[in-house]
Design a protein that fits this description.
By secondary structure, the chain is an all-alpha fold. The chain has eleven helices and no strands. Helix 4 crosses helix 5. The longest helix has 21 residues.
């Protein structure tokens, strides 16, 4: 068994383990807490700006992990570090339950680029789910803003964002690949 297979097995185990607290979370309490998220992430987690990601229908485990990473300062974003500083673990779980239960919107994407991206997307679907809906700790890509996805892929490639296999995957992708993949996932 190679290290990628071992990582995927471990990731699957951890996804199940870390999802358990989110399943017991209070979505209604999360909705109340989410009022401060709306100005960037949009009503019900559907952002109108490519600067901020859509949170609607995002994987709850992924949301919990990211909020905790921002809070701990392991993922750097001044606004998000400020927003998460006073959140309890219960607040984080409730926010994740709320946003993960919301109906997602399509962000769109250039149709020609999306067609090119579809041909390259298979390498992403093993972790991110067969329809890019996300999978435990791996985020939903479907319907995400293409520009946002491009920025994240660049950050992984440059190393300013850490993510295990993502550094290895993005190392062999061009900026044209980033644009095509982002357009495809945004169109789903």
């Amino acid at each position: 068994m190679n290290s990628l297979q071992q990582s995927l097995i471990l990731s699957s185990f951890l996804a199940v383990f870390f999802t358990l607290p989110v399943l017991a979370a209070d979505s209604a309490a999360g909705e109340q807490k989410a009022s401060s998220c709306v100005s960037c992430h949009g009503q019900n987690g559907n952002s109108s700006s490519a600067q901020w990601p859509n949170l609607a229908a995002q994987q709850p485990t992924y949301l919990v992990n990211q909020l905790k990473t921002f809070k701990a300062g392991d993922r750097i974003n001044i606004m998000m570090q400020s927003m998460t500083a006073n959140l309890s673990n219960e607040d984080i779980n409730n926010l994740a339950a709320y946003f993960s239960s919301q109906k997602p919107a399509k962000a769109g994407g250039d149709p020609a680029l999306a067609k090119a991206g579809e041909a390259k997307a298979a390498m992403c679907l093993g972790c991110h789910g067969s329809t890019a809906q996300g999978n435990g700790q791996f985020p939903r890509l479907a319907g995400q803003h293409p520009k946002y996805l491009e920025q994240q892929l660049k950050a992984f490639k440059e190393g300013s964002r850490k993510g295990g296999p993502m550094q290895a995957i993005t190392a062999n992708l061009s900026e044209a690949d980033f644009k095509a993949l982002a357009a495809y996932f945004g169109s789903l």
